[in-house]
Amino acid sequence: MSKQVQQVDTIFCHETGGDYLVVIERGGKRLFRAKLELSETSAGPRPAKFRLKDGSSEEPRQPDEFVELARRSKRIRISEQTSSAGRRDLQEMLAGYQLEDKVKTVRTCRYCAGAGRYSPITTETAVKDDNDWICTDCAKRELERQLSFSGGGAVSGAAKERLEELMLEVQDLERIVNLLKGQLDPDLTKFDTISATTEEVDPVRTDSLNLHPGIQDLLEDRFDTLLPVQSLAVENGLLDGEDQLVVSATATGKTLVGEMTGIDRVLNGKGTMLFLVPLVALANQKYEDFQDEYGHLVDVSIRVGASRIADNGNQFDPNADIIVGTYEGIDHALRTGKEMGDIGTVVIDEVHTLKEEDRGHRLDGLISRLKYTCEQRAARREEYDGAQWVYLSATVGNPEQLTNALEATLIEFEERPIPIERHVTFADGQEKVRVENKLVKREFDTESSKGYRGQTIIFTNSRRRCHEISRKLDYSAAPYHAGLDYKRRKTVERKFGEQELSAVVTTAALAAGVDFPASQVIFDSLAMGIEWLSVQEFHQMLGRAGRPDYHDTGTVYVLVEPDTVYHNSMEMSEDEVAFKLLKGEMESVMTHYDEAAAVEETLANVTVGGKAAKALNDRMLGDVPTKHAVGKLLQYDFIDGFEPTPLGRVVTEHFLEPGQAFTLLDGIRKDAHPYELVADIELRDADL
């Protein structure tokens, strides 16, 4: 025998097909493996063959070598997975050499044992696999193998980490594999609970408000006291004309803050109320709401617009008491010199749009231009004292900084009336719909203590997907997106409100305006178009789960397809994004400018303010490189001094970036068909 093995620590024996695999260790490291065969003799079981294993080859040795190794070892361990007959034979053989004191039966990982590794485990340190227990390393490898075998593909990144973490937590491989097969085990899917929180605010009685009788009577008929965020706004000067940034969770009543002061000022002859939102669909919804709620008191008009679409003035009355509009719709009116009259109140809903890469600069510019327009009018009309500004958002990561930048008073209310449970599970695109069906049915079959059935909002990333999912749900459901006409959307809203629908399936782009009393929110996708959701957007959407007057708790399910992207420009996969959103800190709301954005907003400011363009740039939230932008405008022949050229006026009126404008000009010079021009712009944008 080699001197290298004169002393060993452990001999491990594991039965394999009637023979025994023997592992010899010293200092926790394997020295070699061997194969042992026993034969029955008159003295009992004895070693018959002993072969050292080296890969697939075996080197015969004298059977007595095993006995010598056993005598020199400190301990001898027999795998618990060895059959009772096999254990009996080994123990009897070792007792024949008076080695029984060294022998102990231990639980080991069967995969390790089969591979010639000694891996003792306990039920506290191992993972259950069928009726057996295996070590954590083997469990991770087996999980990956089974997922790949079942069609899940190679799972990596954040999804793999999460699944392994869950497996070690529950110590059951099968439960984890079943999770990816659509089985909803709440102990595994639950990520965390956002606890209900309460903030003590003395409620303001509606009969103490001293508003114009029209809005005063309306409020008193509806409720005796204001909600906390509304009370805080009133106590901090809302009705005295103070500009305010109101930051509060979804369904806490912040919209009424803007409505209350705006309509009061309208009825008291202090100017028009502008209520501005980011999307046409939201403007349509708010316009209809104002018509229903306040149409008997005030005239309501709507102003929407989008780049590359001609302004036809449809339904827009600049002399209306309330003008509901999109950011671009009102900005278009300013860029084209429309007379806006006396503006008494400006309510900017979803003000966190300021941080969005593609649209934030336009809202930033609009606020600057609209403030300038109001100030110029106030300078010309002694009886007009300007506008009150109310900014609304459910999610802001830097409220104090944003409040200072907007020169407003911060009204922040952090109460969450009911808790929200957040769950994460994994599925591919087709499996997601089956999981959603289970979740929707389970929720709709549950009734809250307030007597309401559970209903679901499913957020996805395309209108087509909205229809696909709603068709495949067993219980009555409906798509809901900006492409539906007014009548169909109102029908969906009514049916959901009357609990005739178990679910609505809507796009993430419409998330801000979805106002359904749902108990459950499901994320079918974490993308908005070809962009991943931001932490703000994610929290805004999940905040739709649960209403205090309807439900006992809110439930959120994030359905994740591992290692998936929805566009090749996406740098992260969906599972990585999921945990970034779930764990992420709220991003700061501030506008950032690249060259194209700086040129676009500076051109708009020249168009609206002339020589005041630099002052308009300076008052914007983002840091606009004015000198560079003006140089580019002169180079592009978009301005002549402090006036837009005819080309510049067309560019700014249609919200074109310089690259888009030059694409159009080049096509026009080549006598291209209008359809070709549109296609060229869309292809150019897709390549950016």
What does this structure look like?
With 688 residues, this protein is of the alpha/beta class. The strands form six sheets. It has a seven-stranded mixed sheet with strand order 5-4-3-2-1-6-7. α20 packs across α23. The chain is elongated and about 120 Å long. It starts with 9 loop residues before the first strand and ends with a helix. Residues 306-314 and 684-688 have low confidence and may be disordered.
Give me a quick take on this structure.
This protein has 25 helices and 27 strands. With 688 residues, it is an alpha/beta fold.
- Summarize the biggest pleated sheet: 7 strands, mixed
Strand content: 15-25%
Average residue pLDDT:
87
Rounded radius of gyration (Å): 35 Å
Beta strand count:
27
Q: What share of residues is helical? A: 25-40%
Strand order of the largest sheet: 5-4-3-2-1-6-7
Shape: elongated
Terminal-residue CA separation: 72 Å
- Please mark out the parts with pLDDT under 50 across 5 or more consecutive residues, or reply none: 306-314, 684-688
* Class of secondary structure makeup: alpha/beta
* SS field, number of helical segments: 25
Keywords:
25 helices; 688 residues; seven-stranded mixed β-sheet; disordered C terminus; alpha/beta; single chain; 27 strands
Summarize the helices and strands and which ones pair or pack:
Layout: E1 10-16, E2 19-26, E3 29-41, E4 44-54, E5 57-61, H1 64-72, E6 75-79, H2 84-96, E7 103-106, H3 110-114, E8 127-129, E9 132-134, H4 136-149, H5 157-170, H6 173-179, H7 186-189, E10 190-194, H8 213-222, H9 228-235, E11 244-248, H10 255-267, E12 272-277, H11 280-294, E13 300-303, E14 322-326, H12 327-335, E15 343-348, H13 360-380, E16 388-393, H14 399-406, E17 409-413, E18 420-426, H15 429-444, E19 456-460, H16 463-472, E20 477-480, H17 486-497, E21 503-507, E22 520-523, E23 527-528, E24 531-532, H18 535-542, E25 554-560, H19 574-583, H20 595-609, H21 613-618, H22 626-635, E26 639-640, E27 643-644, H23 646-653, H24 658-669, H25 674-687
Parallel strand pairs: 1-6, 6-7, 11-16, 11-17, 12-14, 12-15, 13-14, 15-16, 18-25, 19-21, 19-22, 20-21, 22-25
Antiparallel strand pairs: 1-2, 2-3, 3-4, 4-5, 8-9, 10-18, 23-24, 26-27
Helix pairs in contact: 4-5, 12-13, 13-20, 20-22, 20-23, 24-25
